Amino acid sequence: xxxxxCDVLFCFAGLGCGTLAVLEQNEAGIALxxxxxxxxxxxxxxxxxxxxxxxxxxxxxGSLQIWDTAKTKGPLQVYKEHTQEAYSVDWxxxxxxxLVVSGSWDQTAKLWDPAVGKSLCTFKGHEGVIYSTIWSxxxxxxxxxxxxxxxxxxxxxxxxxxxxxxxxHQAEILSCDWCKYDQNLLVTGAVDCSLKGWDLRNIRQxxxxxxxxxYAIRRVKFSPFHATxxxxxxxxxxxxxxxxxxxxxxxxxVEHHTEFTCGLDLSLHxxxxxxxxxxxxxxxxxTPSCLAVPV
Length: 295
Hints:
It comes from Bubo bubo (Eurasian eagle-owl). The protein is an all-beta fold. Helix content is 0%, strand content 52%. A four-stranded antiparallel β-sheet has the order 4-5-6-7, with no helix packed on it. A hairpin with a 7-residue loop joins β24 and β25. The radius of gyration is 18 Å and the shape is globular.
């Protein structure tokens, strides 16, 4: 997400409580800048697109928390409307909007303006838990959701009814992402160990299928610098890098965790820089060889 180039965010959940850690990469390694505690697990986090110090987390108690990293106290605001775990949260990248979308195990997505104390709209239709909600980087007011009901759905904030339903997998879908270079292209990652690309103009068949993971795919991210490159992390302990335009799309497999790999992002500021985390309690910042820029 947005934010300063040196900041890395992670949420940790366990033993009935959660911690938001704000980390900084420097020459000596990774340093802890701030940490904030919450009384339930924190499952997702997103930077504000308008204030580099502000971010939102989503929690196991169904609430969203707004934090200011320049302050050391508790959250600025807490929004509690979801009736089950709030598993996903994303801040719109469209500068003209102050919109946040959350997805929950209560099978709904909710639209929020952080300046307003309640949700603006609730989106219903999924028949399973929502694992991922993410804004389109191209189309204002448009977001995608991925669910345990095996569908990818496209929504428009101007109308609560779903715009498009894609039966993307025959298994729970844990993650989705929009291509940064093609407004019609999304990718899904699922429990069936596959990644699938979808063109919104023709959803009868995926435009690509990527196979290689041996357990559920937890998160997938398109590259912000390369139109056909993406990364995925899995419960098989690996992070894999792909170029779906190539005959042999798997570029590299990174195995540096000893537990489920559950978090992944690609830097918007430093080309080739990747951050991931796993249940082994390790955060890794690195550049895989397939993304290293030749000198």
